[in-house]
Amino acid sequence: MINTATETRSVVVEREIPYPPEKIWRALTQPHLIEEWLMKNNFKPVVDHRFSVSADWGGVDCQVQTVEPNKTLSYSWDTKDLESVVTWTLTPTSTGTHLRMEQTGFRPDQQPYYRGATVGWPRYLAALEQVLARMD
User: How high is the pLDDT of residue 57?
Assistant: First the structure.
């Protein structure tokens, strides 16, 4: 018997970005920069650090799970009834960095969250690229 309640979906967004991993890492881990492309936050790149991101519509409770500077960052991304994980992976390329964002944990009964993430993350990554273009 298959337990469909445990089957989950993921949203993956990937970009080739013409900047080194170190520059992208700063934008992913410095609170004032995160606020420019994502939301207000109290992030610290420290494993187990609890933080929140917030916007006009509400907020998300998070906890840092993995920190490998310039390589991998992951954190839980929890709302009242969604428990998911966001993982950023930075891979150097000959022209910059391959950036991969994956949010896992969408249950079949969470279509609105899944659709929201499918639309939202590409917008956030576009905003991230704009922040990177302005950074020195």
Answer: 82
Q: What would the mean pLDDT of 125-135 be, rounded to a whole number? A: 97
Instruction: Kindly state the tokens that stand for 87.
Output: 């993982």
What's the rounded mean pLDDT across residues 70-85?
Answer: 95
96-129 burial code (b ≥16 CB/10 A, e <16): bbebebbbebbbeebeebbeebeeebeeebeebb
The β-bridge partners of 52 are 61
SS (H, E, C) the chain: CCCHHHCCEEEEEEEEECCCHHHHHHHHHCHHHHHHHCCEECCCCCCCCEEEEEECCEEEEEEEEEEECCCEEEEEEECCCCEEEEEEEEEEECCEEEEEEEEEEECCCCHHHHHHHHHHHHHHHHHHHHHHHHCC
The answer to whether 87 and 66 are in contact (CB under 8 A) is: yes
To the nearest whole number, what is the mean pLDDT of the chain? 94
Residue 62: other Cβ atoms inside 10 A:
21
